[in-house]
Design goal:
Blueprint lengths: L2 H4 L4 E9 L3 H14 L5 E9 L2 E9 L13
Antiparallel strand pairs: 1-3, 2-3
Length: about 70
């Protein structure tokens, strides 16, 4: 894990617009994107299909309650 990622308190939020045919495909591609970025624990906070794609907000967890927090090392 990078030094910057170790200093994240809990999660990283990402908002994007994904070109897709419907909301379900948008959600699937969103989860795939977060997996490609290295996040294994992901929540879809918001997804709305509009026109050529979906506006999606995602949260990728770096630390969950009780984890060994990287920011406590220093």
């Amino acid at each position: 894990m990078s030094k910057a990622m170790e200093r994240i308190m809990d999660a990283v939020d990402l908002e994007t617009f994904i070109v897709c045919k419907d909301e379900e495909e948008g959600k699937k591609l969103s989860i795939q994107l977060m997996d490609e970025l290295g996040f294994k624990d992901v929540n879809i906070v918001f997804c709305q299909h509009q026109g050529p794609g979906a506006r999606v907000r995602l949260r990728g967890y770096v630390y969950k309650p009780g984890d060994r927090y990287g920011w406590l090392k220093n």
